[in-house]
Structure formats: C-alpha cells, structure tokens
Predict the structure.
Amino acid sequence: MTARTAIRGRLQASAGMALVAIILLLAVISLVWTPHGGVTASSVPLAEPGATHWLGTNQTGRDVVSALMSATLMSLLLASFATLVSLVIGIPLGGLLAARLGSGPARQLVLVGILPAALCLGTILAGMQVPSTLSVFLAIGLPGAVAATVASRMIMAPVLAADYVAAAKLAGLDWLGTGQRHVVPMVLPQLTALALELLAVAMLVEVTLSFAGLGVDGAGLSLGTMLRDGQQLAQARPLLVVAPGGVAMVTALAMLVAAGGLREMRRGPA
C-alpha cells in the first residue's frame, strides 16, 4: 500500500522479535547460569522479594527468578517442537491443496481456535495414560497442523495462480526452480508470520495444559506448573502467579506483534 505501512510493519516486527529474542536469551542462559544456581531449594521458603531474591522464593524455597528462567525454556521448547510438527505437516499439505484446488472459499482463520481442540485432545490422551510430554506434542501439534494446512493454502494459492508463475512454467522452468525463484520469496514473510502465530498459540496451550495437569508432570517445571503450584498462595505471594503468567502472556503477545508486523510489511510496496 504505502511506504508508511511498510515502515510501520518493519518497526512492529523488529520490536516484537527483539522482545522475543531477549526472553529466549534469558531462557537459554538458564542452561549454564541462573541467579541462584538453578532451581534448587533455598533455606528460606516464601522469602519476600529483595536484593538476594529479586522476586522472592516459592513454597519450597526455590528462587523464583531462577525457576522462571528454566520454566520459560521448557515451555518454549515444548511449544517450538509442537509448532515444528504442525508446520512440517501443514505447509506441504497446504501447498498441495493450493496447487490442486486453489484457495477455496474466503474465510478468516482464527488460530486461537486451536485451544479448545488442544484441551479436548489433551484430556483424551491423559485418560489414555499417554506420557505427558508426548501428549503435549500431540495435543498442540495435530490441531496446529490442521490450522497450518488451511492457512498455508490461503497464503500460497494466490501466488501459485499468478501470471508470472504460469509464465515461468511455460518457459520450461521446473517446479523446484519455480518455487525457489517465484513462490518462496513471495510467501516466506507470511509463512514466517504464520509460524510465529502458531508458536504463540502453542505456548499458551502448553501453559494451559500444564496448569490443568495435562501437560508437564509434577517433576517437570514449566510456566504452567509454576502457575499451578503458585495458585494456592496467590493471595499471600501474588508474584508466584503474576510472574509466570506475565512471562507467558508477554512472550505470546511479542510473537503476535512480530507476526502482525511481517504481514504489514508484506502489504506495503515492494
């Protein structure tokens, strides 16, 4: 549309990705360093926030900041692997449907609709006593694959139907060369935005499943288990709930902001 739209989109995408990068960096650092040497127990359970423990400690004496860094990494890893499964299944299927059937009827895809399906599937898998980590992957990955298929079909169909793609095929360019030269550059920003949106939803689903006892088991530590363990002490120590809930929401919102910025850039001028 206008240069202003493209610039606004670039700034929005940069801001969102920068915030995601900061959160990811702090989570990865937990593999080698945390303020209090991991999530081992401290000598003072439920300590008040202060210079020693910036957000206090929980009921077992764990430093909340240290636990938060490790829990964020776990939630991001689970959500990332599940999202990768969704994309690996959904994008090829969406591309095949777009090539064979076109874009289909116009519709607005709401990725948050994955949440009810994931919760239902997670409940079924838990009832079947499927291992918790595998149940998280399946509960997030399978509904996500359906959403990725529908979304990628809508993204790729207009490009595959474009005149320059048909001209490339008539000129003798094979399907791989056509994809590399004409299709991938056009759809990559939108597919990246789709991946970020799926990752944001997947992280919220993982937190919800773990909070409900359908995700990471009691021995694991994720943002959802931190929320579950802290809810009984929410009135006395609200940070035990606010901190993990806030990190989950900020991370998901940052991903959605970055995705929105990428779409704004795509609508701007070439």
